[in-house]
Structure formats: structure tokens, C-alpha cells
């Protein structure tokens, strides 16, 4: 009797297609502004912006298992800090972005210190209340323009904002890959998500790790908020601090695959593709929210691993509703 030969593939060989795909995708994104019209540059910039925001939320929601319903507050905070810095304090655009990211991360650490000790749904409620509080504060302050909003200096250069957004979103994904996919910090987050009590028993300082993850997930929305404000030249509390900002981050991550590396990028691409396609057909409409809501219902009920989980198959195939609910309960701290 002979034993069938088993082909053993080296890690370098198995990773080669992914690196090739990544290089091709990066090259295509770099050359995109030279091959398409201004309209599609704007659409691509929006997709990249949301891809970065969705991955930022995925750090605390997907990798750590803590639902944050106030993450849009860091986006709005970055928009207003950059706006105030450029119009009132005379900062340059890069300085405004750096300060926006650092202050958003610092505020997340301050908020996370008491709230990340909460269990269940209390963290989600606390972050939601924080986001609403920040929106109300921006509405009444004079320095933010109050209910009239704030105008920033105009820079009519679409390729510039495209490349700035591309670089920032690429940094989000590189950071996620290095810190969460290939480092002990990521393994600690995974341990907290799967069984926080067991992680504490083996010596993981769960509170410190969660605060670091929350601050990291807030830094990038702060920077992207500053880019968004300078790009559109006008911001309002409802446009940068509204609850829809966080809602879309959550929807994109759920649809693409929560806790996966490529899921937020895929979810952002699909949601923006659907919304803009409907906009081209029917003009300004909120019909896309109905379609996205139906898609989320299907994901929650039958494919909790999202599209990435379904494609991988072996991890999270199609499940019955009761099994899908158990999958969510095991991974979310609520």
C-alpha cells in the first residue's frame, strides 16, 4: 500500500498571488486619475474615504468585539479641528490633519478609560451618547459656525484630494495588517473578542489593550474628517457629526465581513457603488438605504461572516437564523 503524495506549499509561495493582486490593485489606483474623468475621480475618492472609515471601525468593532455607535464623532471632530485650525488659527492643511488625528485618539482614550470597563450594550449606548453630545455642542458654539456651518478655503484640485485620501486609507490598511494581523497586539485583541475573562486569566491587561485599540481606531477618522472638510469646503454638524456616518461604517463592515482584513474595503465599494448607481438613475434618493438595509438583514440572518466569510466558506458558510444569531452573540460584547 502506498501513501499518496501530499503537495506542501511554502508560505512564500501561497502568499505570492495575494502580493501580486495587491501590487496590481495599488498600481491601478495610482494611475486612475490619468485614465478617468473628474466625475469618477470624485466617486473613487468617496470609496477610498469610506474604505478607510470602515476599516477604522473594524479595529474596535470587528477585531475587538466592542460595538461603537459614536465613531462618527471622531470624523466630525477631525473635520472641525482642521477647519478651525485653517480658518481661525492659520494652520497649514498637513498640520491640521496631524492635530486632528492626535486629538481624536486622545479623546477616544479619555472616553474609553471609563466606558471600556462596561459590559454588554452599555459601551454601545455610551459611545452613541458621546456622539450626540458632540453634535449638540458643535451646533451651539460660535467658533464652529453653529447651525450655519463652517466654510473652509477652497482648493479645486480633485487629484490632490484623491491621492491624499488614497495615502491615508492605505495607511489604515497597512497599520491594520502589521498591528492586528501580524503582531502580539492583534492576538491579544482576538483573545479579548473570543473570551475576555480567559484573556485576563492568562495575564492580558484587557483594559489597556482595549483603550489602545479604541484610540487607534479613532485616529484615522480624525484625519479623514480633516480631508473631507477641506475637500468639500463646507461642513455642518449634521453632515459630519450625524448618526448616519457611524451607521454607514457599521453597514459596510457587516456587509463585507466583520473582523476580516478585506471585508471593510469590499463593503465600502459595494455600498458606494449601489448608492451612486441609484443616484445616477433616480437622482437624489434614499432608496439605496432600503436596499442596503435588506442586504444587511440577509447578512445578519444567514451569513454573519459577511461576503468575505461566505467566499472563504470554511470559516462562516451560510447558516440558519438561530445559528447565525449564536455566531453574533459569541463575538460581540453586548
Structure notes:
- With 334 residues, this protein is an all-alpha fold.
- Helices cover 74% and strands 1% of the residues.
- It has a two-stranded antiparallel sheet with strand order 1-2.
- Helix 2 (38-63) packs parallel to helix 6 and helix 3 (72-87) crosses helix 8 (206-232).
Structural class: mainly alpha
The CA-CA distance between the termini, in Å, is 55 Å
Shape annotation: globular
Strand content: under 5%
Q: Which sheet architecture does the biggest sheet show?
A: 2 strands, antiparallel
Order of strands across the main sheet? 1-2
Helix and strand element order: HHHHHEHHHEHHHHHH
Spans with pLDDT under 50 lasting ≥5 residues? 1-8
Mean pLDDT: 85
Number of helices: 14
Which helices and strands appear, and what pairs or packs with what?
Layout: H1 11-31, H2 38-63, H3 72-87, H4 93-115, H5 122-140, E1 150-151, H6 158-181, H7 184-201, H8 206-232, E2 234-235, H9 237-240, H10 243-256, H11 263-282, H12 287-302, H13 306-312, H14 321-331
Helix pairs in contact: 2-6, 2-8, 2-10, 2-11, 3-4, 3-5, 3-8, 4-8, 6-8, 7-8, 10-11, 10-13, 11-12
How is this structure best summarized?
With 334 residues, the protein is an all-alpha fold. The chain has 14 helices and two strands; from the N terminus they run H-H-H-H-H-E-H-H-H-E-H-H-H-H-H-H. The longest helix is centred in the middle third of the chain and has 27 residues, at 206-232.
Primary descriptors:
single chain, 14 helices, two-stranded antiparallel ribbon, mainly alpha, 334 residues, 2 strands, 74% helix
Amino acid at each position: 500500500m502506498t501513501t499518496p503524495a501530499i503537495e506542501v506549499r511554502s508560505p512564500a509561495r501561497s502568499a505570492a498571488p495575494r502580493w501580486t493582486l495587491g501590487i496590481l490593485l495599488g498600481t491601478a489606483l495610482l494611475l486612475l486619475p490619468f485614465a478617468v474623468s473628474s466625475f469618477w475621480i470624485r466617486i473613487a475618492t468617496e470609496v477610498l474615504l469610506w474604505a478607510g472609515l470602515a476599516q477604522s471601525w473594524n479595529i474596535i468593532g470587528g477585531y475587538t468585539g466592542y460595538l461603537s455607535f459614536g465613531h462618527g464623532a471622531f470624523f466630525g471632530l477631525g473635520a472641525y479641528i482642521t477647519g478651525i485650525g485653517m480658518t481661525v488659527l492659520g494652520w497649514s492643511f498637513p498640520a491640521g490633519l496631524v492635530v486632528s488625528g492626535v486629538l481624536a485618539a486622545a479623546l477616544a482614550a479619555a472616553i474609553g478609560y471609563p466606558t471600556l470597563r462596561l459590559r454588554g450594550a452599555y459601551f454601545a449606548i455610551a459611545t452613541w451618547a458621546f456622539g450626540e453630545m458632540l453634535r449638540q455642542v458643535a451646533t451651539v458654539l460660535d467658533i464652529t459656525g453653529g447651525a450655519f456651518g463652517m466654510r473652509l478655503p477652497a482648493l479645486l484640485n480633485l487629484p490632490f484630494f484623491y491621492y491624499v485620501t488614497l495615502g491615508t486609507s492605505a495607511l489604515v490598511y497597512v497599520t491594520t495588517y502589521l498591528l492586528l494581523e501580524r503582531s502580539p497586539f492583534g492576538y491579544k485583541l482576538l483573545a479579548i473578542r473570543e473570551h475576555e475573562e480567559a484573556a485576563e486569566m492568562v495575564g492580558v491587561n484587557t483594559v489597556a489593550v482595549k483603550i489602545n485599540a479604541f484610540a487607534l481606531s479613532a485616529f484615522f477618522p480624525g484625519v479623514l474628517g480633516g480631508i473631507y472638510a477641506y475637500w468639500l469646503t463646507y461642513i455642518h454638524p449634521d453632515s459630519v457629526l450625524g448618526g448616519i456616518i457611524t451607521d454607514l461604517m457599521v453597514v459596510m463592515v457587516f456587509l463585507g465581513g466583520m473582523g476580516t482584513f478585506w471585508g471593510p474595503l469590499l463593503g465600502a465599494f459595494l455600498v458606494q457603488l449601489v448608492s451612486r448607481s441609484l443616484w445616477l438613475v433616480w437622482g437624489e434618493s434614499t432608496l439605496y438605504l432600503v436596499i442596503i438595509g435588506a442586504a444587511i438583514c440577509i447578512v445578519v440572518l444567514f451569513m454573519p461572516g459577511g461576503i468575505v466569510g461566505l467566499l472563504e466558506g470554511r470559516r462562516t458558510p451560510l447558516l440558519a437564523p438561530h445559528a447565525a444569531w449564536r455566531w453574533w452573540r459569541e463575538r460581540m460584547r453586548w
